[in-house]
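Please check this chain.
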Amino acid sequence: MQLIFYGLLIGWGAAIPFGPINLDMMRRNLHYGTKQGIAIGLGACLADIAYLFLLGLGAFTLMRHPEILRALG
């Protein structure tokens, strides 16, 4: 049983990316409560969904134009 627990712990540690958003979620959760941590996480998810939506609408074709790349940069 202990081996299964260690396997799960190591698997989660490898699967969870510790980037700036995840660290900010943890910090806000510890300092301000669970609602703030969840709000940051949902905001990050909504941003990812918006990026995917724009890509789905054909933003890749717009990226071929240097003017648009300069504006986004």
Notes: The radius of gyration is 18 Å. The mean pLDDT is 85.
